[in-house]
Automatic annotation (TrEMBL):
Domain of life: Eukaryota
Gene Ontology terms, MF aspect: metal ion binding; protein farnesyltransferase activity
Protein name, UniProt field: Prenyltransferase alpha-alpha toroid domain-containing protein
Domain Prenyltransferase alpha-alpha toroid, chain residue ranges per copy: 2-72
Keywords: Metal-binding, Prenyltransferase, Repeat, Transferase, Zinc
Family named by the database record: Belongs to the protein prenyltransferase subunit beta family.
Cofactors required: Zn(2+)
GO cellular component term of the entry, any: protein farnesyltransferase complex
Annotated SUPFAM superfamilies: Terpenoid cyclases/Protein prenyltransferases
UniProt lineage: Eukaryota, Sar, Stramenopiles, Ochrophyta, Bacillariophyta
Record keyword Metal-binding present: yes
Pfam families the record matches: Prenyltrans
């Protein structure tokens, strides 16, 4: 990957968390839904290289694997692709 997975995990878990919940862009910013989703997605991608956080309790810091393109849990993407691969293609060229 093109980034330091360990440092991203450390930043999200130690700097981006708001003490009352939610995640933010930087420690001086307010938490919001966009940055919460963005941070969790980045944390998930960073954890998919066998690089668990080296601080805190790992089982409390690990998130589900997400697909980097669809930003959905990978098992949901597999189910979606399996479903749509079995459906007929309907072309209405009229």
């Amino acid at each position: 990957l093109l980034f330091d997975q360990g440092m991203l995990q450390r930043y999200v878990l130690l700097c981006a968390q708001n003490v009352t919940g939610g995640l933010r862009d930087k420690p001086s910013a307010r938490r919001d839904f966009y940055h919460s989703c963005y941070n969790i997605s980045g944390l998930s991608v960073a954890q998919q290289v066998d690089s668990l956080p080296d601080f805190g309790h790992p089982s409390e810091s690990v998130v589900h694997e997400t697909h980097p393109v669809y930003n959905l849990r990978t098992e949901r993407v597999r189910k979606m692709l399996t479903h749509w691969q079995t459906q007929p293609i309907i072309l209405d060229l009229s």
